[in-house]
Amino acid sequence: MDREIPKEVRRKERNKKLIRYGIVAVAGVVVVSVLISLMRTGVKERDLVFSTVDQGTIEVSVSASGKVVPAFEEIINSPINTRILEVYRKGGDSVDVGTPILKLDLQSTETEYNKLLDEEQMKNYQLQQLKVNNETQLKDLAMQIKVKEMNLNRMKVELRNEQYLDSIGSGTTDKVRQAELSVNVAQLELEQLRQQYTNEQEVMAAEYKVQELDLSIFRKSLAEMKRTLDDAQVRSPRKAILTYINDQIGQQVTQGTQIAIISDLSHFKVEGEIADTYGDRVAAGGKAIVKIGSEKLEGTVSSVTPLSQNGVISFTVQLKDDNHRRLRSGLKTDVYVMNAVKEDVMRIANASYYVGRGEYDLFVRTSDDELTKRKVQLGDSNFEYVEVVSGLQPGDQVVVSDMSNYKNKNSLKLKK
What we know:
six-stranded antiparallel beta barrel; three-stranded antiparallel sheet; 37% helix; 35% strand; elongated
């Protein structure tokens, strides 16, 4: 016959079951939490770059692309239509002032120059001949004037004689009048001859000046031909590096064709290009920073093209340290042109994440082992800092390295 189990015993058994189920439930929760924790995406702290939000000044800049070019570069063009006979240097050679670079065919030019020399001599002889003829003609006129003066003096004497004879009754009034008329005519002829002498002197002087000016103009043309002939004997105008030369012997080259380029490769400048929408932010005299890798070189905008071509404005940056060891002709660079200053603003380090003003999703460190995505409004920038408009507070640590692989994650576990 079965006995009834006491209530005390039944209560103890029930409590044991409840404790057992509770332990199982707690263990299950712990296991699930551990699994969730293990399944969360993690990133190693040493693989990230953090920037701490602080307050400070930002020299606002606009970014542009740039290319390093020689500070000095001279293009040598063919001064005449000719052909290349000999080449004395090759690209990359150092050249000094007067160093022969190449030889052009000068035979036809030299023949033309010699003809001009003969023509110059002939014009010089013609000018000398004109001078002698003018002097001879003026001397003849001067002699005629002297003869007229002597005749006039003789006639005046005859007039006085006739007047004396007439006064003593030995002469006649008609002879006196005839002598007076002869004196007046001779005096007029003398004045006419003197005026002719003056006129001829002025005309001859003007004619001589015209011929002299014509010879001067011709000599200038001759000097230009001589300069062209000298230029055709292509020599380096200064000490530099020969960066290009047309070495095709026998090739015909027309006047103005580029045949060589010499450059000063010890000093450089940067030619920059920027979208014309930022054209009002670039002006001559503005401060600029040129980045070559991790190097930052200071400079000044020396010139800006006034016109936009294909949506781009070009400008030139003169570097303070224009012979820096990292500078190489043709090297691509980043250029930052300063155009404003903002003081006492929140800022974080500039990096590849920043592409302009606007809203960004950035990961912020919320604890020692957790990163949380946060919407942040960013403003202006320079090559070092980006302005924080909202979404962050001073002291926040923000990831500024590339996080594109985690763009779909809202939080990340930070691993040591």
